[in-house]
């Protein structure tokens, strides 16, 4: 098997080089793992027994969220430091919202809530009611400037009617990814 790995290694490296730089390590691990799985000698099947209980992340990340995670180089480990469980019933674990002002914290909270909703339902959206409630909890609610703050950051959201729920745009998803990685890193 080692001789076959040596023969295929250059080909694996060429495939890895085609991936974006931040994802090359992950691509290498995945390709190498797949190579070993397809070239390993088959093991005998374990005896049938009771099925193991589903893990804490079951049923897992919705398919529609996976491209967001990949594009932002967010691993399951990073995600689990910010949300638990990953999937339906996800809760925001952050004790505080990053930002230097109430306005910045409010916008960051809206982005995090939209990702939370995506983990639950696959839709990167956030209701204004839910945002207000959690903004009060995280002490970043400013009733007189609530709408003004969201309007000032409108590039993070898809166009919407007045009073309609927020849905993340491409730049909003990118910024949400940055916030998630920052929280996971303890920033």
Features of the shown structure:
two-stranded antiparallel ribbon; single chain; mainly alpha; 187 residues
Q: Secondary-structure element sequence? A: HHHHEEHEHHEH
Whole-angstrom Rg:
21 Å
What's the N-to-C terminus distance? 45 Å
Helix content: 40-55%
**Major beta sheet, specifics?**
2 strands, antiparallel
Count of β-strands: 4
The number of helical segments is 8
Strand order of the largest sheet: 1-2
Strand content: under 5%
Low-confidence stretches: 49-59
Average per-residue pLDDT, rounded, comes to 83
The coarse silhouette is elongated
Structural class: mainly alpha
Q: Describe it for me?
A:
- This protein is mainly alpha-helical and 187 residues long.
- Helix content is 51%, strand content 4%.
- The strands form 2 sheets. It has a two-stranded antiparallel sheet. The chain has a two-stranded antiparallel sheet with strand order 3-4.
- β1 and β2 (91-92) form a beta hairpin.
- α5 (102-121) crosses α6.
- The radius of gyration is 21 Å and the shape is elongated.
- The N and C termini lie far apart (45 Å).
- The model is unreliable at 49-59 (pLDDT under 50).
